[in-house]
């Protein structure tokens, strides 16, 4: 049986780098609704590989926030406890060491005719053929970059109905799978974990949409199935600016500690989604009461 035909397995995968804000909570809600509306399993996975950014208190704060909102989970994982899996996957991929600094990469891009596409600099392949960059320090610790496939990768999203095609070679370049400080890249860990955990449905923030072709390419190279993707639009504030922790978006923790009612917060989050069946939700609602409404949205994919 194709794994995508059985009951789904979904997950919420926060990075414990700070307090969960309303935008994260909305993604958490939708991911949970999607798993539960299908009678599926729901996992909580802390993406805590970048130890320099992890805040120890954030794990427990996230647990409490989710419990307060009534979003439960069936199993919990910490990426920091799964390093051997990422190392094994890395070993199966065609990677090469790279000692380039940001400055060297920027200079090489300047020198070549090609201007960087979009916001992200395309790695110009300085270390691709095993040559050591002239003048670079051999003793510098090396990152490992993946020699990306030449083929264009297309992905589609079941929530927005859009398709994105990317030529990794020309739009992204060989990207880092393990940083020079030994930290495995998020793209590698997420792909390894979703496959190992049998995740069939990825509901996450739209900020990761542009990274999806990279992850699908990794899935293919590693022989993993591609899950369904549903990217939740990012929540914007009243000025239309994206809510992020650093902009001082209200942390869920603050609302919880101030004695706000979770039912009100859930109601606001649901209404903000612009789903027709969510517009008329009452001022107070429980997460469980939202399940039948999520089924009505039609994003409840038919179990064909
Ligand atoms: N850890 C990522 C984040 O908090 C989410 C990764 C994912 O859902 O694929 O933005
Ligand atoms: Zn390099």
Automatic annotation (TrEMBL):
GO terms for biological process: glutamyl-tRNA aminoacylation; tRNA modification. Gene3D superfamilies: HUPs (3.40.50.620). It comes from the Bacteria. PROSITE patterns: AA_TRNA_LIGASE_I. The keyword Membrane does not apply. Keywords: Aminoacyl-tRNA synthetase, ATP-binding, Ligase, Metal-binding, Nucleotide-binding, Protein biosynthesis, Zinc. Binds 1 zinc ion per subunit. It holds the Pfam family tRNA-synt_1c. L-glutamate binds at residues 11-15, 47, 186, 204. Its EC number is 6.1.1.-. GO terms for cellular component: cytosol. Residues 11-271 form the Glutamyl/glutaminyl-tRNA synthetase class Ib catalytic domain. A motif ('KMSKS' region) lies at residues 242-246. ATP binds at residue 245. Zn(2+) binds at residues 98, 100, 123, 127. A motif ('HIGH' region) lies at residues 14-24. GO terms for molecular function: ATP binding; glutamate-tRNA ligase activity; zinc ion binding. Its cofactor is Zn(2+). Catalyzes the tRNA-independent activation of glutamate in presence of ATP and the subsequent transfer of glutamate onto a tRNA(Asp). Glutamate is transferred on the 2-amino-5-(4,5-dihydroxy-2-cyclopenten-1-yl) moiety of the queuosine in the wobble position of the QUC anticodon. NCBIfam families: PRK05710.1-3 (NF004314), PRK05710.1-4 (NF004315), queuosine_YadB (TIGR03838). Belongs to the class-I aminoacyl-tRNA synthetase family. GluQ subfamily. This is Glutamyl-Q tRNA(Asp) synthetase. It comes from Deinococcus humi.
